């Protein structure tokens, strides 16, 4: 018989056997604990058919449960036992299961003699030899048990089935059968061979491991009990309120916290809870209820998991309400050993924050994308409805007009025209006859029909030449005409020639001819289709407009991004002759190499150079790094060192010294070296800057000061800082440029009520002060006899406004002589009375005006600037500047590229960029020539846009005009003189030029904003021959429009224009390429030489000249770079 046991579901002996009974599979006297079966067992045996008495289904009275069968006796047990013992002595016995398990053998065999002996014994014991045995087709259930004990003694298998039947109640046997689910098929059984598969052994090993683990846990429990009892007694004896177990706390483990309630402030509280966190209360907070313990005394405890990031655990106990045990207000804390330290945890937090920021950025981008998609869908829905409404209205309009035509239409006009066949429809070819003698074409040599349909809906769609007909009752001519598919009516006239050539028409006395299409499509269907076509056309046109707007927005965004990237690169490279990094863009978390060239600094010749560095404007949590000795670099005189940039850095700060402990320092004239760090988890805190000024473009502009206030403020605001501007409320303000203008509040100073108005100018917050004493109701900005008094009052009122509104700006920036009083008024009256946080920055726009005020402001200002590097050097020796040279800096002005933008300029004929600069400037030149009445010819055109003052080099301007005309060029001048004598002089010159060179020269002696835009675009050259020029914006605007500057080497002109022939090295040091022509000296020879070189380049090398125009357009002269320099200065002022 063959027996197969099939595992149906996992077996758990604990679930099956509820008592400690020992079941037997064979007659061995050893008894083994039962266990689950998780493998299949195959057994075979040879039974003599003669020994089988009979086989039948057991009766209901049998002690065996249904499905089980009794063993069949084979031989007396004593005989078999002797055989068994003899066999063992001879070494013939089969190894036991424990022996096989110990050797790792996969199978265990049980001898046939043992099996037969055991069966006989079992049969004798039960005394049920007459019980029937099931037939071979029956199934029976068997329970198998095995256990392997580690280090051991035993390997057991096999509880006898019959004993299991006898000793197990029916209900339990049903449970066994249900849970174990092993099926045995009874067949021909061989009594000496059981084979047990591998998994039995594996299960035994698992049980051994479980037993070992259980033993280990019992030992640990005993140790825990002993230790906690010892610690509780020890701490109680010392009066300690709490302790932890284990005593050495390590990361990523569970600890138990014990509190002696009787020694704490919670001694009368029924509830005890612990509230805490890790790492100075910054990581993984928790609140857990404590339970009373088995320990002697009033000890309560709870378990807490210590995270792997912990270096300290901080906690207090409380009653869940308002009673706390907080270690006398010092909190409890336990060090965690073997894990992170404070700095490692800080870095971990930064990494976590970085990951969160990256994740948030992705999620935010996705949210914005979805929101944009939603907005676009909503906008599309609204626009589509508007298109439908428009289409309905247009359809109705066309219907009414066509209805009027249909009322006039005919099938024919007697003796004038008719159509054959008379019944036709769309797409038919018909013959239209015309009587030549009926109208004005009787003498025409040719006859043509010009036609369309449905009130000329699609314009001229029929053009055919008529031929003479054989009809005899008149001068009839005809043409074959194709009828349009959806025509309701045909519209036509007759002429003596084709379109563009005809001179005489017969158009039915200006009414045109109209023929009804008799078999046209139904009007209702036609108008439905017409409305749909109109709707589709409107949709297409609208979507094209929207796509153009999106493309333009993307172009502007891309341009801004590219400009920002170029500006930053230029900013970083501008000091490359002294210091630079590799990589140039410093990223948080990276290691960078710093290169320094001491030969260009105060450390030239020093034997050693030490690098001193920190981050975030010297405020980084780790403080300054230890000084590092720099090593020689491969590239000449440079030295180098490496720095690990932390993840929370947004700025890298450093200086250099000659010794480790100091000595001579190179700190960039007190401003230190700073390099921005990108990709960090921390961002620079925004600074609050307030400008107090008397000019602001475009609402109150007289000169460059107004442009600086607006341009600089916008650029700094784009760097995510907060900017406010305080301005007088002149009665001549250009209110059209102020958005959301409204009254805000009033306050009093010096007995005068001052009204405050607020509005937005170019996106900037502007506070307009209106004193009720009439100081700013004079109809002008400058020019009053009491300008000094007016502006001094304004400065005092502005500071009072900041004080009374509780504003605490970081920087107060005042400009030129007009708001210079802010510097000393602040230091004398407001610095110690509520505005102590602020620092004063003062900018000189032109030292020629108000030197006394400027000199006093230089004394009180924390930092002072002027509008270009060269101009700062030119005036450094002035008596009002020299004593304060240590805090005086030159920062170049910029222009606003959105205001001066040839791609979005309504004052020029076509938009252009550097890619189509030649086409754009050609169109602008032609428009300029036409507007001013100049000869429309391709000649070099020189433009001059300037105030006509001695400072601007008017004698050089006059010479340049005549020299340009001598070179067969054209000249246009735009500007006026505040001095009447100079103005009259130029009026006379204008008249003279008009008489002698009327088609090549034009002087416009006024200020004309639209004309200035057209001149910047249409001129080939812009001449700026100033005797001195603090900065100059004209040359910068000229380059923005692709015009080439010709300038004198002074002030900001020298800093921005690099001569194409001899300034290549100087341009490269600024990260630029040469961009114009310049000259020395203030005599006519210098300007003539530069102008000749420029005009020669135009005549002799147009391709090169056009590439120069493209190059200068692509250079960035915006406020982006100066804004970075000003922010460095603002921080230096606050340091």
TrEMBL record:
Listed Acidic residues bias regions: 111-123
CDD domains according to UniProt: GT5_Glycogen_synthase_DULL1-like
Keywords from the named record: Amyloplast, Chloroplast, Glycosyltransferase, Plastid, Starch biosynthesis, Transferase, Transit peptide
Residue spans of biased composition, Basic and acidic residues class: 79-91
InterPro entries noted in UniProt: CBM25, GS/SS, Ig-like_fold, Starch_synth_cat_dom
Membrane spanning residue stretches: none
Primary location recorded for the protein, binned into one broad class: plastid
Keyword Transferase set for record: yes
EC primary class: transferase
Span list, region Disordered: 48-136, 362-394
SUPFAM superfamilies with a match to the protein in the record: UDP-Glycosyltransferase/glycogen phosphorylase
GO molecular function ontology, one term from the record: starch binding
EC number: 2.4.1.21
Subcellular location: Plastid, Amyloplast; Plastid, Chloroplast
Pathway assignment: Glycan biosynthesis; starch biosynthesis
Family: Belongs to the glycosyltransferase 1 family. Bacterial/plant glycogen synthase subfamily.
Name of protein: starch synthase
Species assigned in the record: Cephalotus follicularis
